[in-house]
Specification:
Layout: E1 2-7, E2 10-12, E3 18-26, E4 28-39, E5 46-52, E6 57-59, E7 67-71, E8 77-82, E9 91-101, E10 108-111, E11 115-119
Length: 121
């Protein structure tokens, strides 16, 4: 089994910063990419940022210049540094990973349980 555990969410004032972390564990053979989704109440889940095993990154337009996605040396942990947070950034942020488990040939997508980010005065 694969487990993704997010941390770092919380309450922050507009203009503040948070750093989200996500650690992947389990029988992981290889990770193709990791990223972050978010979902606000009553809205569809949206992709925030991704980073491939090769280090290529992609961001949705609304977070470009404010958010930075990165990964650790083992590529089993992904981070999301969020600066200049706005109320519209408030959502549950979900870590995601596209990976292969040990002994498995196909790539599969996995998500964590999410971490709440609240942006309020």
């Amino acid at each position: 089994q694969v487990r993704l555990v997010e941390s770092g969410g919380g309450l922050v004032q507009p203009g503040g910063s948070l750093r989200l972390s996500c650690a992947a564990s389990g029988s992981i053979l290889s990770i193709n990419a990791m990223g972050w989704d978010r979902q606000a109440p009553g809205k569809q889940r949206e992709l925030v940022a991704t980073i491939t095993s090769g280090g290529s990154t992609n961001y949705r337009d609304s977070v470009k210049g404010r958010f930075t996605i990165s990964r650790d040396n083992t590529e089993n942990t992904v981070y999301l540094r969020m600066n200049s947070l706005k109320p519209e950034d408030a959502a549950v942020y979900y870590c995601n990973a596209r990976l292969k488990t040990s002994g498995e040939y196909v790539l599969r997508n996995y998500w964590g349980q999410g971490t709440q980010v609240t942006v309020s005065s």
